[in-house]
Input
Amino acid sequence: MEDKNIFSESYYSNSPGYPSEERLRKGKVAIIECVEEIPCNVCEIACRKGAIRVGKPITNLPELIEEKCTGCGQCIPGCPGLAIFCIDNNYSKTHSTISLPYEFLPLPEKGQIVFCLNRSGKEICKGMIVRVVPPEKNNHTAIVTVAILKRYSGDVRWIKIKRKK
Amino acid sequence: MEEAIVIGAGPAGLSAAIEAAKYGVKITVIDENSRPGGQLFKQIHRFFGSSAHFAGTRGYEIGNYLLSESKSLGVRVLLNTAVWGIFSENRLGIKTEEKTEIIQAKKIIIATGASENPVCFPGWTLPGVMGAGAVQTMMNLHRVLPGKKILMVGSGNVGLIVSYQLLQAGADVIAVVELLPEIGGYLVHAMKIARAGVNIFTSHTIIKAEGRNGVQKVIVGKVDEKFQIIKGSEKEYKVDLICIAAGLTPLIELCMMAGCELSYLQSIGGFVPLHNEDMETTVPGVYIAGDVSGIEEASTAIEEGRLTGVAVAESLGFISKKMAKERKIEIWSNLAELRSGPFGEEKRIAKECLLREFKTKYGR
Output
């Protein structure tokens, strides 16, 4: 049945940009949460491995060719809709990582504990920052990678740094 | 007499001038603002579109590109200059900082853009009720945050993008209210703010704003299918800024003064000048491009500007019919691409209606 809730994973997981459960289990992979037919194909060029296909017409939904995707994250800052993430479900026995585009200041630091939010902005768990690609590398879009308990990897899509008082 | 004058130095006007100048047309762009670029320099986000064009590039970068292109091609840009009138035989009344004068051009391109639609409610004249364009100007150009707790009215792409930019600037966006039952803009833009904790209330409207010397609180409510406020659904928020993003209306005053015939198409903003495939209006020698010809995106404005530039160069004899035709086909296919898909459908149909009406009435 089609899920009407735009905040749930299943709203996106049947789209061609979403990796299969099998591929997700194998480790690092891109997740494209782009389900409207927008005339846009930036991601197709952003991926140097040829793992994202839009083709013609330009309104095709981006398709993830999951065997070609290495989860390198090059596509993350490329998407104007900031709708691409990378997940590594093999980060450790207990934890997954999620990499997300981050255009805010201050940037989190490696090792910092942050709140992790789901698609609707609800804090669902805490996570630890494991990597920050600074914004200079990708025209003002940083890539932040946060480690979270495995069971949250389908839902965490944002981080929140508590402002210092 | 000037060869060609463009009114408006936004994406459409600059692109028209660049395109025409490429073929050797001596062209002048006039803008009433102190800086060229129109809305582009407020756009700090990456643009959607085809990677073959500007997509993935931030708006202000496109602005910089257009400025350097026009400079290298010798396009003259007159700033702080208002066009206050347009008269017979392509004569324009202009006011510079020093004087008022009449200038004449063989071809005129009107690329005046659009203005924001207001929303009226009790308290709408309080300081702190502001259009999204003004918020962007203050925040992204002048680096002044106009409020700390914000209610956004309208969930089209402008409302969603400006909400995201307000979050980036450190403000709290308390909520976005949308009168219609669906989010107006792209889902990806909505999700950017939703995951950061911003509530988007569809079927909601603003009831009133209150405050002593400025906005201090706002009351919003849910509406039924007839857009009537449902009693008991009212919610009150403490905010200091109400940002209005309720769509745009083409700035057609100069077109009207020139005598261009208009048509009414709601989906592209209301009254717009009829035009043909060369973007020429019903007044020979007067062309249009960009939002004045119907509200669309900056990327479509750029392509329309280019189209106008080719058409003007062709009619002045700077390029052959054959060359012009090839270039126009290329631009039209770019436009078709940008207008493709479910989001572009209404605009695509409206634009086709305009062309058809022109053809039926004038046979060109």
Summary: The mean pLDDT of chain A is 95. DSSP finds three helices and nine strands in chain A. The first strand of chain A starts at residue 29 and ends at 32.
